[in-house]
């Protein structure tokens, strides 16, 4: 096929360029960055040199303009050379805001954040990379599925990990984003797999028979909580299997509520939900024996429980799963055995996301 000589490494609109609505100048500028949408940013070579490893290398080796992607050409003796940039003005503006003493960029969308992060990495701009990563993490807290899909499309493992962790705050199985249409089945499976195994690790803290021993094994446990000494028959709980529970009903339902919440949103903060706490305290207040000590004791218990869940979830790593090794099972032991559906035990070659 004959080469299209009219094509350049990146497409540019025709016409004259215009100046950015503001400049990063001050002292006389010595270089102009011209963006793909033909906006000129007058800047200082020194600032670029100390902030961008890409430009530092280009300036030091005198290779600026050798590769076609950065062609430098002074229009006259009085005008600084122009460096065409493949990025648009919004992206370049954000990059420059990280290296000049001006307000930091306001980046509101996942698309923009990834465009800036990609450019920051390309030009080796440490401050811009750090700042944009923070923004990506904040966006992931709101739109984990979108951020995960964007990162997966670029095979950016760090951002995939950040988004996968943020997704623990959501019932991810019930969520949809348009970006899912373009995400590979494997990437989506690994996200769900991580979420599911975090849910298993978190709920196991409560479903295993040894859960309470784990709690009281904590060195800070040095009290006898209100619910261990209650003899009020009205406080008695009956389990799903008909057996009487050794703990008051209000405490049983408090744990059951946390268990169900963790199954959908498996992160430590879920167990600290103040609504679940308040509901338990209101129930405990109906018992004359539990009423006085419940608020303080439950608070202390909850702190230890959250720490346990944090430790358990933090140990979970994403895996690449061999489908032939999936074994389905139904939990049958523990307090909530059989109460919350089923899970998948996954085995296979371990790989961090
Ligand atoms: Zn009681």
UniProtKB/TrEMBL annotation:
Domain of life of the native organism? Eukaryota
Q: Which region ranges are annotated with the description Disordered? A: 1-22
Q: Which InterPro entries match?
A: BTB/POZ_dom (IPR000210), SKP1/BTB/POZ_sf (IPR011333)
Sequence intervals crossing the membrane = none
Q: Which residues form the BTB domain?
A: 29-100
Report what the protein is called: BTB domain-containing protein
Which species does this protein come from?
Hermanssonia centrifuga
Q: What is the lineage of its organism?
A: Eukaryota, Fungi, Dikarya, Basidiomycota, Agaricomycotina
């Amino acid at each position: 096929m004959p080469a299209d000589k009219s094509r350049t490494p990146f497409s540019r609109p025709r016409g004259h360029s215009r100046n950015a609505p503001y400049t990063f100048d001050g002292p006389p500028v010595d270089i102009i960055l011209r963006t793909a949408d033909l906006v000129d940013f007058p800047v200082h070579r020194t600032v670029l040199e100390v902030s961008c490893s890409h430009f530092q290398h280009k300036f030091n080796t005198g290779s600026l303009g050798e590769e076609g992607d950065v062609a430098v050409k002074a229009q006259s003796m009085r005008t600084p050379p122009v460096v065409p940039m493949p990025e648009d003005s919004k992206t370049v503006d954000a990059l420059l805001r990280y290296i000049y003493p001006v307000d930091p960029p306001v980046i509101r969308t996942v698309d923009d954040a990834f465009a800036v992060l990609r450019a920051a990495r390309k030009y080796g701009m440490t401050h811009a990379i750090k700042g944009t990563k923070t923004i990506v993490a904040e966006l992931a807290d709101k739109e984990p599925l979108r951020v995960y899909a964007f990162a997966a499309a670029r095979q950016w493992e760090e951002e995939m990990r950040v988004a996968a962790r943020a997704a623990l705050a959501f019932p991810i199985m019930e969520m949809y984003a348009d970006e899912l249409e373009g995400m590979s089945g494997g990437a989506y499976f690994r996200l769900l797999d991580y979420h599911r195994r975090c849910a298993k690790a978190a709920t196991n803290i409560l479903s295993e028979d040894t859960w309470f021993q784990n709690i009281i094994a904590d060195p800070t446990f040095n009290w006898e909580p209100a619910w261990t000494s209650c003899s009020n028959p009205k406080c008695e709980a009956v389990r799903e299997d008909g057996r009487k529970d050794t703990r008051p009903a209000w405490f049983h339902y408090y744990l059951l509520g946390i268990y169900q919440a963790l199954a959908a949103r498996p992160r430590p903060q879920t167990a600290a939900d103040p609504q679940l706490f308040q509901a338990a305290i209101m129930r405990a207040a109906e018992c004359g024996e539990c009423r006085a000590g419940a608020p303080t004791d439950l608070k202390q218990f909850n702190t230890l429980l959250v720490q346990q869940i944090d430790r358990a979830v933090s140990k979970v790593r994403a895996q690449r799963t061999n489908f032939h090794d999936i074994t389905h099972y139904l939990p049958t032991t523990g307090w909530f055995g059989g109460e919350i559906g089923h899970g998948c035990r996954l085995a296979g070659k371990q790989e961090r996301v």
